[in-house]
Amino acid sequence: MHILGIETSCDETGIAVINGKTREIIAESVKSQIDAHQVFGGVVPEIAARAHIDVIDGMIAHVMREAKLEFKDLDGIAATCGPGLIGGVMVGMMAGKAIALAHQKPFIAVNHLEAHILTPRLLQDVPFPYLVLLVSGGHTQILVAKSLSDYELWGTTLDDACGEAFDKCAKLLRLPFPGGPHLEKVAAKCEDAAKALQNVPLPQPMAGKPNCDFSFSGLKNAVRLATQKPHLAPELAYSFQHTASEILADRCAQAIKRFRTIYPDVAHPAFVVSGGVAANKTIRARLEGLMQENGFLFFAPPLKYCGDNGVMIAWAGYERLAAGLVDGLDAKARPRWPLEEMKQSS
Ligand code: KG4
Ligand code: ZN
User: Fold this and answer.
1) H or E stretch including 25?
2) pTM (whole model) above 0.85
3) Who has the most CB within 10 Å: 13, 126, 291, 336?
4) pLDDT per residue over 37-63, tens digit each?
């Protein structure tokens, strides 16, 4: 079953064709707009939308050529319809709808967050229900994926998202935007971990609280104060990354307890970490260790599929199409589209 996936909700244009049934990625392309936004220190929505328009047609043609397929060979067109920057979402959604209309193909309106959550299922068997940590630039959530379209939110951030905290900390260290990957590289230059934690002690907001919520603003503030004193960038970056991964692990430990109580019959529960921040190797390793200690199977997308891409949209589209969840050409573009509202909208 051949699905074209289109992603345009932020600053990456992602296009892919997959065969969902055989779990084959046939052709894909991702184009980042980072250069266009870097001078502004963040993503500028208007510039993002225009940049998607500039490249989307050419990228779709290129990916279809690489896949050696024509539009008539497709079984469905999936496009991100939210949540995200609405100008960009509309560009991808309208391109998808136009192809679906012209070639009389099913259109699948994909929730970007659901796509992140389902991505590991493309490459491995991850059975429902599973525990999810979604960590991106806009979201930090713990939830249970019960089935397609059925997500229960257990915790979210009370202030900044984890990726946002990485980006802000990186900015304080004068690293380029988006800072997460740059900060990881600087932290890797730290030669003495124990000394870094001693020299730059940082707080872990919410530690030990018996819920699954997050807070990163106190951490960000502490980093700001630390940068005002003499410091070594690798030590500060290391301490921040270590603290962020401890915060995530502490909140996930609460979720593990809750999952065991609510689903005592699931013998080998699965845990998925997904979203841009899931590309961080320290965080992946910390969470993998935590899951092993607690008898959970650990799943994370390959590094290249942690950030935004067309493959994850095509896969979510395939899962929905296979379950008979097709949308009309009147599907809305949604700047906000909480996962908990998926059930009503499907
Ligand atoms: O999922 P994503 O590509 O876009 C959103 O939907 O938000 O996530 C982007 C976020 C950015 O904040 C970026 O700095 C962060 O993910 N990120 C990382 C790493 N790679 C990307 N944060 C920490 N370490 C990384 N290696
Ligand atoms: Zn994303």
Assistant:
1) strand 24-32
2) yes
3) 13
4) 988 888 899 999 999 999 999 999 999
